[in-house]
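Morning!

This is the sequence you dropped in the shared folder:
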Amino acid sequence: MNFEPARHYWLPTPNPDSGVFARHAFRGRRWERQSADTTVCGVEVAMATPTDLDWVRAPTCGECNRTLISELNGRT
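The structure's back. C-alpha cells below.
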C-alpha cells in the first residue's frame, strides 16, 4: 500500500488579534503568495513574505503540529 500523507507547508504568520508571530501549517505544496489562508489549526491569518528573523523567532504552532501528527498516525 502506497500511503503518502497530505501535503502541507509551514509559514510564520501573525496572530490576527495580538500580532504575535507563530509558524503555522497550511494545506498544499507551497505558499502561492496568497494574502490570507486558513491554518491547519483553523485560524484565518494574513500572509506575507516572512523575514529570516520571523522564521527564527516564531515558535511552531503546537495545535498545527499535533493535528498533522494525528493525521499521519491515522487518528483523524
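Headline: The chain is about 20% helix and 25% strand.

More detail when I'm at my desk.
O.
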